[in-house]
Design a protein that fits this description.
The structure holds two protein chains of two kinds. By secondary structure, chain A is α+β, with helices and mostly antiparallel strands. Chain A contains 19 helices and nine strands. In chain B, strands 2-1-3-4-5 form a five-stranded parallel sheet, with helices on both faces. Chain B is globular and about 35 Å long. The chains are: A alpha+beta, B alpha/beta.
Chain lengths: 574, 112
C-alpha cells in the first residue's frame, strides 16, 4: 500500500507540475516555427508569435507565487497554445489548416478575459463580463460559422461556397473587434483610476500594457475594416505589442517586491516612538492608507484604539488578517485585499506588529472598560433619579394628602367650635401645617416637580425666589435638555445656594445658565466669605460624582474673603 | 359647585366646608373624565379642581373647561403654586389655593 502511494506520487505530480508547461511550449513553438519557415511565412511574424507565446508561458510560471491569481495563470498558459494553434493556418495539410482556422483570434479572447478578470478571476463588472463573452463569441463562434462558408481547398468544414458570406462574417468580426477593443480600453483606464494603492502597485503595469495592446488592436482592426484587406505587417505589430501584457504582469510582481520593506526596517519603523499612531505606522509600512487596526478584548469583542466597539468587515473589498501573540489573537488588521498577494510582507508585518500591538491592545481594553464604567455610572444615576421621582410622588400622594385633609378638617372644626376648643384646634392645625411645609420641602429636595414639568429655567427661578437672600437668575434656555442634564444642573444650583445660605454670609448671589453648542454652563456666584472646598462626603462631593457620570466637570473658585464661584460644564449630548 | 379630587376623605371635608358656608355642592368627581362629564351634566357655577388627578392633570381639565366657556375654576393642590410655575396662570383658572390653606373665605375671595 505504502509503496503504491510512493510510486503513484511522481506521475500525478508530473501531470500537475506547471513547470512542465515550459518545455511543452518550447517544443510546440519550435514545431510551429519550423512549419512557418517550411511554408515560407514572414520571418518577423514567426519571431513575434514565438516570443509572445514563450513570454506568456513564462509569465504564467512567475504568477505561481501569487495563489490568488490562479485563474490568471491558466489563462496565461492557455493563450500561447491558442496562438501557436492558430499559426497552423500556414500548413498545407487540410486538417492542420482547419484547426488553425478555428483557433484564429482565440488567444486574443483569452487575453481579454485575463485582463478584465485580473487578478482574482471574476469579471470586474457587468460590462467587463459582456466584453469577455463578446470576445469569445466573435472569435470561436465567428470562425466556426465562417468555416462553413469559406472557400478554401484545405477547409474541411466547408459545406457551401459563398465567398460573399465569408467576407461579410470577416467584416462583422473586424468591426465588432474594434468595439471590444475600445470597450477594453475604456474599462482598463477606468480601473486604473479606481484602484487602491497596494493593488495599483502590482496591477498598473499590466493595465498599461492592456491599454497599449487594445489601442493597437483598434488601429489594426479599423484598418482591416476600412481597406477590406488583411494587412500582415500591422497584424505582426499588434502581436508584438501584445508581449507587453506578460511583461506587464511580471513587472508588476517585481515592482511590488522591490517596494516591499525588509522585516528589520519594519521593526525599526513600528517600534519608533514617533507621534504617529500604530495604525498610521502600519499603514505606512504596508503602503495601504485604508488600513485599520481592531484590538481583540479578553471576551472576544473587537474595539478600535479609542475603545469603541469595532466590527470586522466581511466584504470582498476588505480583507482581515489576524495578529496573534503566544497563540492568542490580540488584534486584527483590516486592509486592502490586494495585500494578500504579498503574503511575505503581511507575514513580516504581522510578526513585528505582534510585539508592539500588545501594549496598544491593553490601552484599548482599558479605554473600553472606562467607557463601560461611565455608561454604567450613568445608568446608576438614572435609576436613582427614577427612584427619587417615585418617592416624591409617594410622599405627595400618601402622607401629604392625608395631612392636608386633616388640616382642612381641623380648620373647619375650629370655625364651628366654641372659643376654648377653637384655640386648641387652631394650634393643632398650625402643627399640621408645619409638618406639611417640612414634608413639601423634603419632597422638593428629593425631586423637583417644577423641573420635570416646566424645565430648568423655571425651576432655578423658583429656587432663587425661595432663597432667603436676593438671587438673580441670568440667561434662559430656549429648549428643554435631557432629563439627567437638567437634574444635574438643578442640583448644582440647589446645592450651591444651600451652601451660600449656610456658610457664605453673603449679601447676594447670582445664577447664570448658558448653553453654547452642546455644552451647558451653570455658574453660581456669591459675595460671601469664600473658602469653600469639596470635602469627601459633602454635598459638593456627591454632586461631583453625579456630574462625572455625565462626563461633566465641576469647579470651585473660592479664595478666602473673595466670595465663591461654583461652575459646572455639562455636555448635553447632542 | 363641583369638587374634583381623587382622595375621597378630602372631598368629604371640602364638601362639608363649602356647604357649611352656604355653597350648594352639585357633585363630586375623582378624575378628569368624571369631572368633564359632571361639568356638562350639572352646569355648576364653579369647580374646585385638584391639580394631580389619575388620568390627566388639572391644568388640562382647566384648559378644556376654559376653552368651552365653562364655569370658573379654582385649582387646589397639596403643593405650592410655586411648584407649578407658569402653568397656573396659563391654564385659564380663576385662581390657586394650597390645599392646607383651603377655607370658604379663600374660595369666596377668588370667585368674587
Amino acid at each position: 500500500m505504502a509503496s503504491n502511494a510512493v510510486t503513484a506520487l511522481p506521475s500525478r505530480a508530473a501531470v500537475r507540475d506547471p513547470v512542465l508547461l515550459l518545455p511543452v511550449a518550447v517544443a510546440a513553438g519550435l514545431a510551429v516555427g519550423w512549419l512557418g519557415v517550411h511554408e515560407r511565412a514572414a520571418g518577423t511574424r514567426i519571431a513575434a508569435d514565438l516570443t509572445l507565446s514563450w513570454a506568456l508561458v513564462t509569465a504564467s510560471l512567475i504568477v505561481l507565487e501569487r495563489p490568488r491569481w490562479r485563474r490568471a495563470r491558466w489563462l496565461l498558459a492557455a493563450a500561447p497554445f491558442a496562438l501557436l494553434g492558430s499559426d497552423l493556418e500556414w500548413a498545407s495539410s487540410h486538417a492542420l489548416w482547419t484547426v488553425g482556422f478555428l483557433l484564429e483570434g482565440l488567444w486574443a479572447a483569452f487575453l481579454v478575459q485575463l485582463v478584465l478578470t485580473f487578478p482574482e478571476g471574476r469579471p470586474w463588472s457587468r460590462p467587463a463580463r459582456i466584453a469577455v463573452i463578446t470576445a469569445y463569441t466573435l472569435t470561436l463562434g465567428g470562425q466556426l460559422v465562417g468555416g462553413l462558408a469559406t472557400p478554401d481547398t484545405r477547409n474541411l468544414l466547408q459545406v457551401t461556397s459563398h465567398p460573399s458570406v465569408a467576407d461579410a462574417i470577416d467584416r462583422v468580426q473586424a468591426i465588432a473587434g474594434v468595439g471590444v477593443a475600445l470597450g477594453v480600453l475604456f474599462l482598463v483606464l477606468q480601473r486604473l483610476h479606481a484602484l487602491g494603492r497596494p493593488a495599483r502597485r502590482a496591477q498598473a503595469p499590466l493595465l498599461l500594457a492592456a491599454a497599449i495592446t487594445a489601442l493597437t488592436s483598434v488601429v489594426w482592426l479599423s484598418w482591416v475594416t476600412a481597406t477590406d484587406a488583411r494587412v500582415p505587417t500591422l497584424e505582426t505589430i499588434a502581436h508584438a505589442l501584445a508581449i507587453t501584457i506578460p511583461v506587464g504582469i511580471v513587472v508588476g510582481i517585481g515592482w511590488s517586491r522591490l517596494r516591499r520593506p525588509q522585516a528589520s526596517e519594519l521593526v525599526v519603523e513600528l517600534r519608533s516612538e514617533a507621534a504617529a499612531t500604530m495604525r498610521e505606522r502600519l499603514a505606512r509600512a504596508l503602503d495601504d492608507p485604508t488600513l485599520d487596526v481592531a484590538y481583540r478584548l479578553g471576551d472576544g469583542r473587537y474595539v478600535d484604539a479609542t475603545g469603541r466597539p469595532a466590527e470586522l468587515p466581511q466584504r470582498p473589498d476588505r480583507a482581515v488578517t489576524a495578529v496573534t501573540a503566544g497563540g492568542e489573537a490580540i488584534a486584527a488588521l483590516i486592509h486592502d485585499p490586494a495585500l494578500l498577494d504579498e503574503p511575505a510582507l503581511v507575514e513580516s508585518v504581522r510578526a513585528t506588529a505582534a510585539l508592539v500591538l500588545e501594549n496598544e491592545r491593553l490601552a484599548a481594553e482599558v479605554r473600553s472598560q472606562l467607557t463601560e464604567v461611565r455608561a454604567s455610572r450613568g445608568r446608576i444615576v438614572a435609576a436613582a433619579d427614577a427612584e427619587r421621582r417615585r418617592i416624591e410622588r409617594n410622599l405627595h400622594d400618601g402622607a401629604q394628602q392625608r395631612l392636608v385633609t386633616l388640616s382642612v378638617a381641623l380648620g373647619l372644626e375650629a370655625s364651628r367650635a366654641d372659643s376654648a376648643a377653637a384655640a386648641a384646634l387652631s394650634r393643632a392645625q398650625d402643627e399640621v401645617e408645619q409638618a406639611i411645609g417640612e414634608l413639601r420641602e423634603l419632597a422638593r429636595g428629593i425631586h423637583p416637580t417644577l423641573l420635570r414639568d416646566e424645565g430648568l429655567t423655571a425651576a432655578v427661578e423658583a429656587l432663587a425666589r425661595r432663597a432667603p437672600l436676593p438671587v438673580t437668575v441670568q440667561g434662559s434656555l430656549r429648549d428643554r435638555l435631557p432629563d439627567p442634564v437638567e437634574l444635574a444642573a438643578y442640583f448644582v444650583v440647589s446645592e450651591a445656594l444651600t451652601n451660600v445660605v449656610k456658610h457664605a454670609s453673603a449679601s447676594e448671589a447670582s445664577v447664570r445658565l448658558e448653553r453654547k453648542a452642546a455644552t451647558l454652563r451653570v455658574t453660581v456666584i456669591d459675595d460671601g466669605v469664600g473658602g469653600a472646598r469639596i470635602t469627601p462626603g459633602s454635598g459638593l462631593a456627591g454632586l461631583r460624582d453625579r456630574l462625572e457620570a455625565l462626563d461633566a466637570t465641576l469647579s470651585i473658585d473660592s479664595e478666602q474673603g473673595r466670595g465663591t464661584n461654583v461652575c459646572a460644564f455639562i455636555s448635553c449630548g447632542s | 359647585m363641583l369638587i374634583v379630587d381623587d382622595h375621597q376623605p378630602f372631598r368629604a371635608v371640602a364638601r362639608e366646608l363649602l356647604e357649611s358656608a352656604g355653597y350648594l355642592v352639585t357633585g363630586e368627581a375623582a378624575d378628569a373624565a368624571e369631572a368633564l362629564a359632571a361639568v356638562a351634566a350639572d352646569a355648576p357655577d364653579a369647580v374646585l379642581l385638584d391639580v394631580q388627578l389619575p388620568d390627566r392633570d388639572g391644568f388640562a381639565v382647566a384648559s378644556a373647561i376654559a376653552a368651552a366657556n365653562g364655569p370658573a375654576v379654582v385649582l387646589i393642590s397639596s403643593r405650592d403654586a410655586d411648584d407649578y410655575g407658569r402653568r397656573v396662570v396659563d391654564c385659564g383658572a380663576r385662581g390657586f389655593i394650597t390645599k392646607s390653606k383651603l377655607s370658604a373665605a379663600a374660595v369666596a375671595a377668588l370667585l368674587e
